[in-house]
Amino acid sequence: MAGPREEILRSADERRAAFDAIASDYDTYRPGYPEESFDDLMALAGLRAGDPVVEVGSGTGIATLPLARRGLVVTCVEPGQGMAAVAQSKLAGFPGLTHVGERFEEWDAPPGRARAVVAANAWHWVTPGPGFRQAATVLGVGGFLCLLFHHVVQVGVDGFADELRAVRDAIAPPTEAALRLGAFLEDHVWSDDMEESGLFAPVATTRHGCTRDLTSAEFVAVSNTYGPASRLDPDVRAEVDAAVVEMIDTRYDGHVPKREEAILYVGRRTD
């Protein structure tokens, strides 16, 4: 049986196509990151305006924009054409940015030029061994690998998550693989991977929380940008969406608070 990481990598092409198909919704509904996380990134990696950085899996530019606003010169590595097109439109005011339409591990990258390699909610799509070696190659001496992830702390009031799961499972029960994958992504400690690679240490970790209050329609829209929902048959997904909206509107006053945490890992390339 393949582990969760292997299952992620095996489905990478399928998931890229799915993300491309919903690139606009992804950009609209996926959460951004607290500004404090980018302030931490700049400080821990010793970055200044004008420094060159590489962003892995830059998607629609959700993390690229705050990097560019801090004056960094970003090379965006994103194989999804639809996702990259949204980012290029949004970031047109930053002429120093460039886009590479390849997987990070397969990119023939110029060695030693970047001050930092950044991945925001994207490193799980990178093959660990080749990915860490590529990051070390891309970075100059003393450069930093910076991994940023969202972690869901709580969805709704107490009891909401259990009721939501029951409603969804009654229509579209999750597979064992999907449950394993969800648990992996929520619980994995990415600093362990960085240190075990032998290429990045020590690793500093910072956390900043944020809460969004979502309407029932917004809650469904953002849920559909994540793996399990986005891979459902459209008719089944529509049935799930309708049931969830009805539950939220009739039992939870039409809105759901979603509390999340941005976790940043920053490790220096070992020389």
Describe the structure in your own words.
This protein has 271 residues and is of the alpha/beta class. It has a single domain, classed as Vaccinia Virus protein VP39 (Rossmann fold, 3-Layer(aba) Sandwich). It is built from 13 helices and 7 strands. The protein has helices spanning 4-10, 12-21, 23-29, 35-44, 64-69, 81-90, 128-138, 160-171, 176-187, 190-196, 216-223, 227-230, 234-251; strands at 52-56, 73-77, 98-100, 114-120, 139-155, 200-215, 255-269. The chain has a 7-stranded mixed sheet with strand order 3-2-1-4-5-7-6, sandwiched between helices. Helix 6 links the parallel strand 2 (73-77) and strand 3. Helix 1 crosses helix 9 (176-187) and helix 8 runs antiparallel to helix 13. The longest helix is centred in the last third of the chain and has 18 residues, at 234-251. The chain is globular and about 55 Å long.
Number of strands: 7
* Main sheet attributes: strand count, strand direction, barrel closure: 7 strands, mixed
Q: Domains counted in the coordinates: how many?
A: 1
Kindly provide the radius of gyration, computed on alpha-carbon positions and rounded to a whole number of angstroms: 19 Å
**Could you say what the CATH topology is called?**
Rossmann fold
Summarize the topology:
Elements: H1 4-10, H2 12-21, H3 23-29, H4 35-44, E1 52-56, H5 64-69, E2 73-77, H6 81-90, E3 98-100, E4 114-120, H7 128-138, E5 139-155, H8 160-171, H9 176-187, H10 190-196, E6 200-215, H11 216-223, H12 227-230, H13 234-251, E7 255-269
Parallel strand pairs: 1-2, 1-4, 2-3, 4-5
Antiparallel strand pairs: 5-7, 6-7
Helix pairs in contact: 1-9, 8-13, 11-13
